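REQUEST ID: PR-0412
SUBMITTED BY: lab tech R.K.
PRIORITY: routine
TASK: structure prediction, single protein chain
INPUT:
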Amino acid sequence: MAKCVKCGKRKAKRECPALGKGICSLCCGRLREKDIPCPSHCVYLASHQSYQARRIIDKKPSSLAPHLDPHGDPLRDERLAWLVYHIETPLMNIAEQDPSLSDRQALMALEYARETIEKGQTVILMPDDPVKPKNKWGELILASMENCRFDRGIILSREQNPYTREEKLVCLERAVLSIKYASSENLEGRNYLDQLCDRLSRIDRATDANSLIKF
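STATUS: complete
OUTPUT:
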């Protein structure tokens, strides 16, 4: 039996429709929809999607930022609402450009960003970095968060007033919660993305950041 096209070590027990070659089950699971652009008709993708999405939605929240009420909504905090806006804006831009983007793909991008921050990888990985599979939409979210600054409605230079790891995590989890409720667990649709595009398009980009707590 041929070796896996990705690792070159294990047996290629699965035929990958995206790569047109054989792949081992471990690389298939590790790289699926991250390093490999899986087509919707792939049988291995279909069998995995519902499990993966449920795992993300049911994942326990990380520790909240110390100054937050554990039962509070980050959108009620001006500073955190601004960060949530910068998390969701890349998803809106992608959704407007690509009508095929689903709520599940948006969820995977948020999970990618969350896992990256949880593991302490605050520096955006370069395209040729072999450390972990990439999610291109997740990378856009990370970049947007990295450049986001807030101070009483004034955006500062990137050297000032950075967000903490805990603040980033709680805002990512807020975005995941939005998908959970907007999609009604039909993650192959675009209920969340359509609502997101409509919501953010109604925000005057020139208004004070305080208005973000209203969306």
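NOTES: The helical segments are 25-31, 43-57, 78-97, 103-118, 136-147, 165-183, 191-201.
REVIEWED BY: pending
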